[in-house]
Amino acid sequence: MEILENESMAAHTSLKTGGCARYFIKIHSIAELAEAENFAKTQNFPIFLLGKGTNLLVSDKGFAGVIIQLGPEFSEIRNIGDGHFQVGAATPLARLARYTIQEGFAGIHKLAGIPGSLGGAIYMNAGAYGQEIGNAVVEVKSLNAAGEIVTRSGADCGFSYRHSIFQDLARNEDRGSSIDNDYNSDRREIILEATLQLTPGDTTAMTQEMEAAMEKRRSSQPLNFPNAGSTFKRLAAGAAETPTQVAPGYYIEQAGLKGFRIGGAEVSTIHANFIINTGNVTAKDIADLCQLMAQKVQEKFGISLQREIIFLGDFN
Q1: Is-contact 22 45, C-beta < 8 A?
Q2: Contact 56, 228 (CB under 8 A)
Q3: Rounded to two decimals, what is the model's pTM?
Q4: Per-residue confidence at 316, pLDDT binned at 50, 70, 90?
Q5: Structure confidence at residue 171 (pLDDT)
Q6: pLDDT for 274
Q7: Which residue from 81, 80, 77 is spatially nearest to 97, judged by alpha carbons?
Q8: What is the structure's pLDDT at 146?
Q9: Residue 239 to residues 37, 55, 236: CA-CA distances in angstroms?
């Protein structure tokens, strides 16, 4: 177990900003995970599990608790036959997608461009280009705050658009504003591994589809700047005048915010649903810009945007 004190989270998140974690612990086994849980309980510290940090904004004030990251021992992929794969939660989604293509199985091959871990993908029910990880999940094992291993079927994980039961468990129900801490450490569960079921597919065709999806991502997203992916979730329905337009970026752009800046945070000129770090950005810059985007879209269109980025720590 590797323990770092007052570790800057700018080095561990794709937005490249944020304060320090009181403790940052790298875990290499279930036994170490239990030890870290016990350490946090003894010190009365909250725990947050970090994947690849691609969908996370940590407050400039930091996180007064323990951030845990699973080590490479939790990134094993096992083909157990009949299209079933047992996969550790720390496995990069890109590596998993490419592996399943090589094995000749379809279902998640278009997700190769998503820069996160399997655990994070399950937590958010990550998806792209018509594929969602939740559609492939048949079982998830997690560790709850009491130190018990919980096994759920895919059907019991509550998957829907960018949603899973793991978000419900970790959600802070006492948020007073849109920029408060999202996270409730007392109910959260740490995803350990999942079993996926995929269908046979043509390797050449899947490779072509994967490459096409990745090229579309490169051409339509600001990948040359630090960012956290989509800022807001796709809408269930559009505004009255555009009822079929469900892309948040459309409404953000129509609100005149494309290219708008607060400090070092900017609404991308390539894709308005992305906030980019242009340099010397603070977490407050990003949180304030996020709040402004939601406010302007609400004022102009009467639409309430739901944030996709997780806010961790005190933003007040």
Answers
A1: yes
A2: yes
A3: 0.90
A4: confident
A5: 77
A6: 98
A7: 77
A8: 83
A9: 46, 27, 10
Annotated catalytic residue, options 35, 103, 253, 308: 308
Identity of the amino acid at 185 = S
**308 included as an active-site residue:** yes
Residue 22 in contact with residue 40, Cβ under 8 Å?
no
Out of 162, 188, 268, 307, pick the active-site residue. 162
The pLDDT score that the predictor gives to residue 184 is: 66
Is 230 designated active site?
Answer: yes
In the residue annotation, 37 being an active-site residue is answered as no
HEC states along the chain? CEEEEEEEHHHCCCCCCCCEEEEEEEECCHHHHHHHHHHHHHHCCCEEEECCCCCEEECCCCEEEEEEEECHHHCCEEEEECCEEEEECCCEHHHHHHHHHHCCEECCHHHCCCCCEHHHHHHHCCEECCEEHHHHEEEEEEEECCCCEEEEEHHHHCCECCECHHHHHHECCCCCCCCCCCECCCCCEEEEEEEEECEECCHHHHHHHHHHHHHHHHHHCCCCCCECCCCECCCCCCCCCCCCCCCHHHHHHHCCCCCCEECCEEECCCCCCCEEECCCCCHHHHHHHHHHHHHHHHHHHCCCCCECCEEECCCC
Catalytic-role residue among 59, 230, 266, 307: 230
pLDDT at 45: 92
Write out pLDDT tens, residues 117-154.
999 999 999 999 999 999 999 999 999 888 889 999 99
Whole-angstrom Cα distance, residue 178 to residue 205? 43
Could you tell me if 258 and 252 are in contact, meaning their C-beta atoms sit under 8 angstroms apart?
A: yes
Quickly count: other Cβ atoms within 10 Å of residue 135's Cβ: 16
